[in-house]
Amino acid sequence: xxxxxxxxxxxxxxLEPAVGHEMQKTRPCLVISPDALNFNVQTxxxxxxxxxxxxxxxxxxxxxxxxxxxxxxxQVRAVDRARVLHVLGQFDEAAGRRVLKLLRTLFED
Length: 109
Description:
Layout lengths: L8 E6 L11 E6 L3 H4 L4 E8 L8 E6 L2 E6 L4 E4 L3 E7 L2 H16 L1
Antiparallel strand pairs: 1-2, 1-7, 2-3, 3-5, 3-6, 4-5
């Protein structure tokens, strides 16, 4: 990918190699790192998306490309921008802020 991804972009990311219970394969991810980070270092922080039906306190329900699923906040990771293949779309600002609010809540406990 030539341009850095922006916060709330939904990007296709190559997550292999994965170890143990880490999410694997090439999958959509939500960029949650701020643009100041995305534009100044070669990594970005992403949360994978899944179409699985396992709801939980660390899963944010969403619809991406017409498919219902979840942003998986218990699998947040930093990835090199070289793993980002391309931008698929973008969360709207309100949904992105709700994701970040849930992430903050998870770390408050």
